[in-house]
Structure prediction request, 470 residues.
Amino acid sequence: MTDKQVIVIGAGLAGSEAAWQVANSGVPVKLVEMRPLKSTPAHNTTEFGELVCSNSFGALSPDRAAGLLQSELRFFNSLIIRTADKFAVPAGGALAVDRSKFSKTLTEVLSNHPLIEIKRFEQLDIPSKDNITILATGPLTSDPLSYEIQNFTGINACHFFDAASPIIYGDTIDQEIVFKASRYDKGDPAYVNCPMDKNVYINFRNALIEGEQAELKEFEKESANFFEACLPIEEIARRGIDTMRYGPLKAIGLWNPKWGNLFDRENRLKNRPHAIVQLRMEDLEGKLLNMVGFQTNLKWSEQKRIFRMIPGLEKAEFVRFGVMHRNTFLESPKLLLPTLQFMKRENLLAAGQITGTEGYAAATAGGLLAGINASLLAKGKNPVTFPDVSMIGSLMNFISNRNQILANQKKNRFQPMPASFGLVPKLTKRIKDKRLRYRAYQKRSIETLNGFKQILDSCFEKDHLLIKIN
Prediction:
């Protein structure tokens, strides 16, 4: 145990994970969260780790990039991933959670930890140099703190626009039209599917393109670029008549037994839908459904009108309409080390989406690493860098690699990055089969992390891992 306290600013996924890792190493934590005193354009609750855009952490299979990242986080007793596992809802091959139970449990666990002190106020500046601090304020960092970070770094923050999908009441959809299934019948029938014929699809696309948009503020218009991994549905529609059909509305791999024999080619061609809108369960009972891939900046009245054009949703009632918000992130390759320490100040760290990682599991990974390193600093020990053959290590290497600056000089911008096998070093032996190659990446990562964890555990005293997640 040490008397030094670590300050964690922000109780989103990264901040919650960081606080958990620090406290579990025997180091006291002050976790600062501005909600409910001040909210954001995207949050609706005061709970920690609120998921604002989707309820999915990505693919579960360890031979997928997101799945490998989840496996690595479980290996290091991640509070976020263990809680996600506990409140998982059917989502085909993905890890999706019951948002409400997930966030409430995170809040309870952190609030009851003996070494975590919760403070509800807006942090207006960066704590003094005497404090070990983790900035985990996310892409919706408040303006006053954003200005302070900008003054500290001397670099303007980067921006992109992100959006959240609508959520509807499950008992307001037409069960005679929709059907439950997962793509290619993988896992349980986890999605509610709304089939469209060609005429309905074309009319729907036209309505999306012509729909009235919510007005952007003046300062937002100056930097109105979208993040390609999370485009508004109306922006996807504008890019081509079939773009949605090869994206969130693709019908491939989905079949309703009512349409007859799937293996009868003539029948399949006759009855196959032109497009399908998918709804994913937000809770185990299916009372709430998320419109998959339907991030949007349409006005709420337009969302209600246009989305009710979807077969089966003619009488849909909305729990939440889609919203768009401006996200801020650091130009991390110019500012951060692979340990997530700032180059200008070793006891100041950053974690989560503010560093330029994309996705819930990636944000959690940043929180885990920042928490571990803040703990080591508090104990007077050297911080660690994760092996680059791991997904965690490859992500942290990407956001701290100054070569990213050179690679993006023509574009003059650093863009957020999700977990990807394209980031990890190549295998010594070439494997042509992609699935086998990804499995080899997974095996190499876990074997390397086994040795790394033994070294890491030896850095901590016997009070490490005070509490474990079952």
In short: Residues 72 and 446 are 7 Å apart (CA to CA). DSSP finds 14 helices and 17 strands in the chain. The chain has a mean pLDDT of 88. The domain at 6-157+330-459 is CATH 3.50.50.60 (FAD/NAD(P)-binding domain).
